[in-house]
Every structure is written in C-alpha cells, then in structure tokens.
Amino acid sequence: MFVLENGVKNKGEDPRLQAISQAIRVVPHFPKQGIMFQDITTLLLDHNAFKDAVDIFVDRYRDMDISVVAGVEARGFIFGSSIALGIGAKFAPLCKPGKLPGEVISEKYVLEYGTDCLEMHVGAVQQNERVIIIDDLVATERADAEVVECACVIGLSDLKVRCKLNGKPLYILVEPRQVENGF
Ligand SMILES: O=P(O)(O)OC[C@H]1O[C@H](OP(=O)(O)OP(=O)(O)O)[C@H](O)[C@@H]1O
Ligand SMILES: Nc1ncnc2[nH]cnc12
C-alpha cells in the first residue's frame, strides 16, 4: 500500500495493488505532448481490479465516521459514489462550472495540464460532517478545511503534492506508471 501521511511514504503488502496498477492503461502524450496519461477506463473493464480498488477504500473509511464522500467530476464520480454506497455515506459531486443548478461554492485550481474550477452545492455538506474527497488521480490537487482525508486511485506522489493539499492527509493506492504497459 502506498500512503502519504505527514510527508512519510510507507509501502505495505496488499497483493491486490499490483493487479490494480497493471489494469490502468498508460497512454503517452495524451492529451498533450509529454503527459503520461493514466487511463482508468481499462481498470473499470476489469471487474476484479475495479472491485478490489473500491473495497480497499471502503475498508479504510467504513469505521472513520465519514458521512460525506465528495467526488471530483468526472472520474472521481465513479470511485466516489461506489465508495459512498460501500461505507453508507452520502455522495456530493464536485462539478465543473455551470453543471449544478443550485447555489454553489466555487474553487479555482491548477491542473497538471491546465486550470479549472470546481463547484459544490451550498448545503451539500453540513458544518459538523466528516468528509473525504475522492478522485481517480492526484497530480497537483487541492482541498478545503472540512476535509478528513483526500484519496485517489493513482497519485503522482511527492511532497509538493502534499503541500498543495494544504496539509490534509492524502491516501493513494498506486503510483503512476511512466512506461506503456501492454494495452
Ligand atoms: O491533480 P490534477 O492536476 O488536478 O489532475 C487530476 C484531475 O485531472 C483529471 O480530471 P479532468 O479535469 O481531466 O476531468 P475528467 O475527470 O472529466 O476527465 C482527473 O480525473 C483529476 O480530476
Ligand atoms: N497524467 C494524468 N493521467 C490521467 N489523468 C490526469 N489528470 C491530470 N493528469 C493526468
């Protein structure tokens, strides 16, 4: 298992992680020259690997008194909603601008290849709730004050990433591969 907490990397022995990592297709130079794109659609086509990935998150969060899973559009919706159902929490989508019809809170951020903005419905999360933020991948992420932990399937892990998470713990299943892997 690969975990970044307080800036310390720990390697565990979960035998499911190698298959999860291998199920993620690496596509060089997509969507731009120089980017090694980590394509989770191949993981989603592998029932066992997809289920194992969700189960690992569910096992981690089921006893942490989490009442809200916030998932980042679009790929974070896939994992976040599955995890929310698994731990008995509600799911709050963090959407690209203009997708949510109600009053929203907005947050601008810098991506690995661009900039963007996320919005969440006001009232989706109450002040006393414990929230986790789920995405498929963290390269340059962000988080706000009520977050217990941020989690992702793939993490471009270094201390710079952790600093940009504003000191919130970051839980990562696998590291990105930097070479093509047979798809
Ligand atoms: O760590 P970062 O630099 O923020 O990059 C990671 C984000 O980029 C991708 O989303 P994207 O904005 O491409 O949207 P998509 O999920 O709709 O493809 C990915 O799903 C993460 O949300
Ligand atoms: N290298 C990468 N692979 C897949 N999604 C991404 N989003 C930002 N960087 C990415």
Task: Provide an overview of this structure.
This protein has about 180 residues and is α/β, with parallel strands linked by helices. It has a single domain (about 15-175), classed as Rossmann fold (3-Layer(aba) Sandwich). About 25% of the residues lie in helices and about 35% in strands. It is built from 5 helices and 11 strands; from the N terminus they run ββαββααβαβββββαβ. It has helices at about 15-20, 40-45, 45-60, 75-85, 160-165; strands at about 1-5, 10, 25-30, 35-40, 70, 90-95, 105-110, 115-120, 130-140, 145-155, 170-175. The protein has a 7-stranded mixed β-sheet. A hairpin with a 7-residue loop joins strand 3 (about 25-30) and strand 4. Helix 1 (about 15-20) crosses helix 3 and helix 3 packs across helix 4. The protein is globular and about 45 Å long. 1-O-pyrophosphono-5-O-phosphono-alpha-D-ribofuranose binds next to helix 4 and strand 9.
Write a concise keyword list for the protein shown above:
single chain, 183 residues, alpha/beta, Rossmann fold, 7-stranded mixed sheet, two-stranded antiparallel sheet, 11 strands, 25% helix, 35% strand, globular, binds 1-O-pyrophosphono-5-O-phosphono-alpha-D-ribofuranose, binds adenine
Topology readout:
Blueprint: E1 2-5, E2 8-11, H1 16-22, E3 25-28, E4 36-39, H2 41-44, H3 47-61, E5 68-72, H4 75-87, E6 90-94, E7 104-111, E8 114-121, E9 131-138, E10 147-155, H5 159-164, E11 170-174
Parallel strand pairs: 5-6, 5-9, 9-10, 10-11
Antiparallel strand pairs: 1-2, 1-11, 3-4, 7-8
The structure holds 1-O-pyrophosphono-5-O-phosphono-alpha-D-ribofuranose and adenine.
